[in-house]
Amino acid sequence: MRYEERLTVSWWVWLIVAFVGGAGFVAVAPISTVVGLIVAAVLVVGIGLAVHLGAPRIVLTDEDLRVGRAHIEREYVGAAEALRGAEARAARGPGLDGRAFMNFRVSVPDLCRIQIVDPVDPTPYWLTATRHPDELARAINEGQRRAVSSAPR
After folding, report:
1. Measured over all CA atoms, what is the biggest interatomic distance in the chain, rounded to whole angstroms?
2. Which residues cross the membrane (predicted)?
3. Which residues contact 8 (CB under 8 A, 6 or more apart)?
4. Average pLDDT for consecutive 10-residue bins of the chain (153 residues)?
5. Shared domain check, 99 and 82
């Protein structure tokens, strides 16, 4: 495994989950405090599990690249570029190619643009959120250099 990251949500999303649980308690507590506590617990645990288990993973191996449920063989992965700040905002907005594969997360502002070099795939690149765009781009680009240098001549 060359790189692995799980795109978990930021701390402030957990505040929203707690707020929803509190709202469930407040809605049901006038009827029964015990039922209100049960509703709050079920909401917090249910939403918390959905948020945690639904977090996509980025996994780069010598064989393939996986982002969430999408995967592509390593031979079709081109150069990668880390995007932060204004570059990332532009890549998400006016600079976005509608054919690109996109994996955005509201709580992860940085991106990595990964070129796709498969001649039959109309997807020009993958654009994925990552907390470590430089590390992901470095891992992809190092693997690409290794594959080029070990190719038969």
Report:
1. 77
2. 12-31, 37-60
3. 52, 55
4. 92 94 97 96 97 94 95 96 96 95 93 96 96 96 68 55
5. yes
What amino acid is encoded at 22 in this protein?
G
Range of the structural domain that residue 28 is part of? 7-53
Q: For residue 147, what pLDDT is reported?
A: 58
Q: Which pTM was predicted?
A: 0.81
| Cα 4 to Cα 54: distance, rounded to the nearest angstrom | 16
Residues 98, 43 share a domain:
no
CA atoms of 114 and 100, how far apart (whole Å) = 10
Beta carbons of 133 and 112 less than 8 angstroms apart: yes
Residues 43 and 89 in one domain: no
How many other CB atoms sit within 10 Å of the CB of residue 24? 20
Same domain as 115, residue 64: yes
Using the CB atoms, write b or e for 32-53: b if 16+ within 10 Å: eeeebeebbeebbeebbeeeee
User: Residue 125: what are its φ and ψ, rounded to 5°?
Assistant: -165, 165
